[in-house]
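HUMAN: Now follow token order:
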Amino acid sequence: MQSKSNVLLRVLLNKYHPGPPQSFLKCLPQDEIKEVAAVDTPSNDITPALTWPRDIILHTHYSWIAPIIEKMPKNLQLPVVASLPEPQNTGVGKLLNLAVLPPPPATMQSFMLTQLYKAWNPSDALPRAYLPKSSLEALLTLSKTDMVDLIDLMAMFDLSDAIRHIVDKMLLKKIYQCLSPQKQQFLRLSLHKKEKLAAPKLDIGKWDGSLEQFNSILHRRGMLRFGKALCGQSRAFLWHVVHILDSGRGNAVAVHYLENEIPGITPLLAQQLLSVINFLKSKN
């Protein structure tokens, strides 16, 4: 966990004291010097610190926020919801069955969002501008809808490997009928690439033939690939990625995350992830 004060101090050092921070911090205790030096952010911009709570909330799916507001005092819930930006405002209102009031004046909004952030206190949340550099930072440009599509398309790597071994033409036809045009297109692209990963095979034989179960099987496999592709990324980066998603999917992806990348697996999955992002951006 990186404290807000350590992150801000590191940003200030980046701006006014470039280079190793130890010489400037020598008056501090050794453990504090190590904590500040361990903060990995290239930013030297203090501006995000001024809007920290609002920006964190703005980039978080409302399903994570609703339970926090529900635990707040009743007399604060309506003004806090009214202070939320859209679509969090409407989403939380629906989840908690609360009336959505007109937004209060800007100063009151800022105060209410700060109270929400204090009640929430997400330990791994940093402003996006202060995150360590990442090869997967393009994920942070995706909407929740895009990220759900990404999960489904990641599963096409598993499906392409599975259907290479299917000879039943009727089964193949049924599989393609269950896929959207976008999934069909990406599946065809995947079929031209040999899978380099020895992943557990999709057991199509256990599929009951329903569209619902088929989508569920693929979605779970996509979340597994996604989570493993994130291994080795910072926890602060993981936090932002999973909070773009709804809390159910976000937690399901985070289950597969490890602090260290998996040799021979994570780099390949990260490449696949980037290929899916490029595909989605070409469609948009």
